[in-house]
Amino acid sequence: MNRHRLLFVDDEKKILTSLKRNLLDSPYDCDYFSDPKQALLSISENRYAVIVSDIKMPELGGVEFLEKAGEIDPLPTRIILTGNAELSDTIDSINNAKVQFYLQKPWRKEALLKTITEAVALFDEASDKIKTISILEKKVNSYGAKVDKLEGLAYIDPLTGLKNRRGFDETFTERWLSAIRHKRSLSLIVVDIDRFKLINDTIGHSEGDAVLKKIAGAIRSSLLRPDDFAARYGGEEFAIILADSDKSEEVAQRIQQSVCDLKIQHPAFEAGFNVSVSMGISSTRPHEGKYQKPEEFFHVADMALYQAKNEGRGRYIISMDS
Q: Where in the sequence numbering do the catalytic residues fall?
């Protein structure tokens, strides 16, 4: 266990000599200073359990010295050595220097040791509280980080790594309100993997999951800006939000090409029949009030998707109602 370190400052050498003699056999490491400025320098370089100062010193008074010491390190217990101190000095030392103990000159050795022991105990108590608070803060921060991580995971589709339906719904509402506030456009692309049920029925769900991952990667790589948002809406359906953009058709074309480049053979058909996607696109300026709710706007893109399906799949349709 480390020994506690104490600091004493008094401009009278005989006082320091008396302190040294009284504390010669004490279980503490003690530093003695006649110059308060040198004492302050030592406080900035060392951790003291107790700081003891004479109340009246010519260059720097004890109250002011302990104030400065407290600014450097507020933890040590502070003791004032006093002869016949004025009441105003006593009040100042309590209010300004945060003094916890007084030691009357001349002192008895027993009184000195008792005061020092109580001061060290007070320091230990304060140190333990700070350690406890630090441990609690770390636990709280760790718990908070775990909660944040869990909350983040609640918005992620574990299979594809894209945001899930919950993440989409919240983001869609936020982007809708932002577009109204800033009077900007908003575009939506709804993507569906063609004949996906046949994939699961023919080669199983694990292979179907592999297809979902590849299509999700193609969608992610086709976005043009960091702010473009893609989510797995549910099953084999994906949704993309483009805020303040006129590139919705370009993004759809990039998705088409990326999926084509994957060359995923559809297991329910002959060789060369690859997996494709259909898409519905809608764009609007929400502040103009054509749609009262974002759900109405989504429905328009969804209807365009169904039109693409009905017209033969593997294509995109831009809604004429947007």
A: 236
Secondary structure (DSSP) of 80-123: EEESS--HHHHHHHHHTS---EEEESS--HHHHHHHHHHHHHHH
Residue ranges in the chain whose pLDDT is less than 70: 1, 84-98, 142-153, 321-322
CA–CA distance, 9 with 35 (Å, rounded to integer): 7
* Angle CA 201–203–209, to nearest 5: 90
Length of the chain: 322
Domain boundaries, the chain: 5-132, 165-318
Report the CATH architecture of 165-318: 2-Layer Sandwich (3.30)
**pLDDT confidence of residue 270:** 82
Q: Is 242 exposed, middle or buried (0-12, 13-18, 19+ CB in 10 A)?
A: buried
The candidate with the shortest Cα–Cα distance to 281, out of 292, 294, 297, is 297
Q: What is the pLDDT of residues 241-296, one digit of tens each?
A: 999 989 999 999 999 999 999 999 998 888 878 999 999 999 999 988 888 899 99
CATH number of 5-132: 3.40.50.2300
Calpha distance 77→213 (Å, rounded): 63
The reported pLDDT for the residue numbered 90 is: 57
